[in-house]
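Customer escalation, tier 2.

The customer says the design service returned an amino acid string that "doesn't look like it belongs to this structure." They asked us to rerun it and document both sides in this ticket. The original structure tokens are below, unchanged.
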């Protein structure tokens, strides 16, 4: 079994906590790093403790650059501007990315597509299966 090391950006937020809990429950995914904004009051604290779990010995840091080498995939549910910057760092480091942030402008979507040509990337502002099926159907409309 291959172990995947995930880096969670926005780890102290609501969605970040859910992602940390999912990683905790998944045998083949380990936490490679956690990131929060540079002025977050929890910087330096242990990610497990911030998420209300046991200590993981993974500190919350203020920049993806600090931990990008520690992971295989970057998971980002922050905001469009931050996610785009993080995607560029992930692409430069050859790391896969999952982005669930919202609010991308058409220009930012194009920038994300350009960065995603270098790495595996999922960018979806809504991660529910039904909504993603709808996105695919709309993209393929009209039927040929």
């Amino acid at each position: 079994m291959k172990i995947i090391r995930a880096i969670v950006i926005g780890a102290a937020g609501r969605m970040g906590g859910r992602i940390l809990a999912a990683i905790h429950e998944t045998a083949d995914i380990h936490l490679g790093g956690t990131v929060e904004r540079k002025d977050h009051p929890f910087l330096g604290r242990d990610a497990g403790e911030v998420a209300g779990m046991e200590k993981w010995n993974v500190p919350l840091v203020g920049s993806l650059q600090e931990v990008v080498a520690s992971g295989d995939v970057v998971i980002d549910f922050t905001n469009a501007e931050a996610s785009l910057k993080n995607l560029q760092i992930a692409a430069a480091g050859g790391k896969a990315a999952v982005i669930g942030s919202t609010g991308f402008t058409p220009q930012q979507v194009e920038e994300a597509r350009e960065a995603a040509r270098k790495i595996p990337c999922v960018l979806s502002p809504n991660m529910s299966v039904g909504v993603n099926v709808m996105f695919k159907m709309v993209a393929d409309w009209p039927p040929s």
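Tier 2 assessment: The sequence is consistent with the input. The radius of gyration is 16 Å. The helical segments are 14-24, 47-50, 80-92, 106-116, 129-139. Sent an explanation to the customer and offered a walkthrough call.
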